[in-house]
Amino acid sequence: MLELPPVNVQLLAQAIKAFLAEELRASGLAGYLVGLSGGVDSAVSAALAATAVGPDRVSALALPGPTSSPESLRDATMVADAFGLQLQVLDLTRPGDMLAETLDARADRVRFGNLMARMRMVALFDRARPVPALVLGTSNKSEILLGYSTLFGDAAASVQPLGDVWKTHVFALARALGVPESVITKAPTADLWPGQTDAGELGFEYATVDPVLYWHHEGGMGRDELVASGFPPPLVDGALEAYRRNRFKWRPTVVARVSASCINVDRILPRNPER
Prior knowledge:
It is built from twelve helices and four strands, in the order αβαβαβααβααααααα. α1 crosses α7 and α10 packs across α12.
C-alpha cells in the first residue's frame, strides 16, 4: 500500500518560519496573535511564530466556551509556558450561550460548534486590532482538503502557516519543536462538545487518510487506482466524498469574473511589497 512521502522536518520548519517572518515584515504590524486551543495544530503554529519573530511578538489567547473541557485550557497554558508566551484567557461561555439562544442554535451541536468557531475568530481579530497583529491560523492541509474547518471561523485567519502541511507532518513538527508530549499524544479534537474527536466525526484517523489524500490530490490517482494500490474501499470512498463535498471551502470567497483581470481568478497579484 502506498504511503505518505517522508518530509525533511527541519527544512519544513525553516521554510515556514521564513514565511512568517516575511509576512509580518510586509504587513508592518507589531506581531502575531494566536488562539491556543490546547491542541497540536495551534501549539505548532505558536511555536513556529515564536521562533520566527520572537516570543515577545506573539500574543496568545485562550477562548474557552460552554462546551470546552478543562484539559484544553490546561494544555494551552502548558504550550504558552513552553514557548515563553503570555497567555490571556477570554471566556466566551456567556456570549456563546446568549448568541445561541438568540439564533435558536443550541440544540444543534454542529450549528453551535460553527457559531463558537466564528465567535472565537471575531474575538481574535478584535484583540489583534489594538496590538496591531496578524491573526495566526492553525488549519492544516488534511483538515482543509476534508472540509474539517468552519468558513469564516478557523479558516478566516490572516495567515495559515500549516495550510500546506499534512496532519501527519504536523505531529513530526511538534516533536521537533518541543511541543509538550501530552499535547501531541492526545486525540485530535475541535472541542466542540464533550467527547468529540476529529476521528469520530470524520470516520478515520489522519495517519490513515493522509496517504489517500496525498496520492489523490497530489498524485492524481482516482478511486479505482487507490483501491488497486491497497487502500480499503470504505476509506477511499469516505475520503474522496469529503474531498469533493467540501471543495467550496478551499476558496471561501469566490469572485464572479466579469473582466479579463479578475482578482484571484485570472492572475496572481504580488502579496508583499518590495523591500
